[in-house]
């Protein structure tokens, strides 16, 4: 059953959604990578509810960015990748069902490990950007991203690795990953409802209250991304995610 939140918890959730929307719009990744662990830490809700909140709140941000930058996206190449990602969603949902049956401490550790793995891959696999790469890499990234989206709405890291292997303009980089994930939203929500019942709707309703903040953060982030050094923002975001991942992995050992 979906628990009642205190006013402080609701306010913390609002601040997290605003921050994550701004960051995603500014650097092109990071909404759920930040939102899922931070919402788990502040709200203490089971992972399926947290995933639903992150999914619903981030949808507004995706719509804003895709609407403004849709002309920058190579849709012909992207549609097969979207299809692969959608087909991979049930595998991620299966993992979510497995993990959601564990304790909150174990769940947080799993999320923390995934974040550390994602950041480790991002730091380890650096390639010189080029105009064209083997198309199969995009399909592999989409498959892995679809599994991670189904699990915790964190399908960005494999796609980011694929994106930054391309010598593309900044607007295309920022818009492509959101254009890839946006069509998955109705499928993700349907799978969550089918697996976890009507409490998923209560989670989505809470997130709907945060949508104005998600829109505001998106517009602010798009403006910020044009005025600051995006590379430095990505470095700061990566460092923060590593710290958050470590905290979630080690937290149970210090609060035994």
Helix amount, in percent? Answer: over 70%
User: Domains counted in the coordinates: how many?
Assistant: 1
Report the principal-axis shape: globular
Biggest beta sheet summary: none
State mean pLDDT (0 to 100 scale): 88
Order of helices and strands: HHHHHHHHHHHH
Gap between N and C termini: 26 Å
Structural class: mainly alpha
What is the strand and helix layout of this fold?
Blueprint: H1 7-27, H2 31-43, H3 47-69, H4 75-100, H5 104-124, H6 135-152, H7 156-163, H8 170-181, H9 185-196, H10 199-209, H11 211-227, H12 230-254
Structure, briefly:
With 256 residues, the chain is mainly alpha-helical. The protein has helices at 7-27, 31-43, 47-69, 75-100, 104-124, 135-152, 156-163, 170-181, 185-196, 199-209, 211-227, 230-254. The chain has twelve helices and no strands.
Describe this structure as you would to a colleague:
The protein is built from 12 helices and no strands. α3 crosses α8. It is globular and about 50 Å long. The longest helix has 26 residues. Helix content is 81%, strand content 0%.
């Amino acid at each position: 059953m979906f628990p009642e939140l205190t006013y402080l918890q609701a306010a913390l959730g609002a601040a997290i959604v605003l921050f994550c929307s701004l960051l995603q719009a500014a650097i092109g990744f990071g909404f759920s990578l930040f939102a899922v662990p931070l919402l788990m830490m502040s709200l203490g809700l089971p992972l399926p509810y947290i995933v639903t909140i992150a999914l619903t709140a981030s949808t507004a941000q995706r719509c804003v960015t895709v609407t403004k930058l849709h002309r920058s996206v190579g849709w012909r190449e992207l549609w097969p990748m979207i299809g692969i990602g959608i087909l991979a969603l049930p595998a991620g949902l299966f993992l979510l069902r497995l993990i959601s049956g564990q304790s909150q401490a174990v769940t947080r550790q799993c999320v923390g490990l995934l974040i550390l793995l994602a950041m480790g891959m991002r730091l380890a696999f650096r390639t010189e950007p080029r105009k064209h790469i083997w198309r199969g890499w995009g399909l592999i990234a989409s498959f892995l991203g679809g599994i991670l989206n189904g699990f915790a709405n964190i399908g960005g890291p494999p796609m980011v690795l694929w994106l930054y292997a391309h010598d593309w303009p900044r607007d295309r980089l920022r818009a492509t990953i959101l254009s890839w994930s946006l069509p998955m939203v109705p499928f993700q929500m349907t799978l969550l409802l089918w697996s976890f019942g009507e409490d998923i709707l209560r989670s989505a309703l809470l997130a709907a209250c945060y949508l104005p903040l998600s829109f505001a953060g998106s517009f602010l982030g798009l403006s910020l991304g044009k005025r600051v050094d995006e590379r430095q923002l990505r470095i700061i975001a990566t460092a923060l995610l590593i710290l958050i991942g470590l905290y979630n992995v080690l937290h149970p050992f210090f609060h035994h």
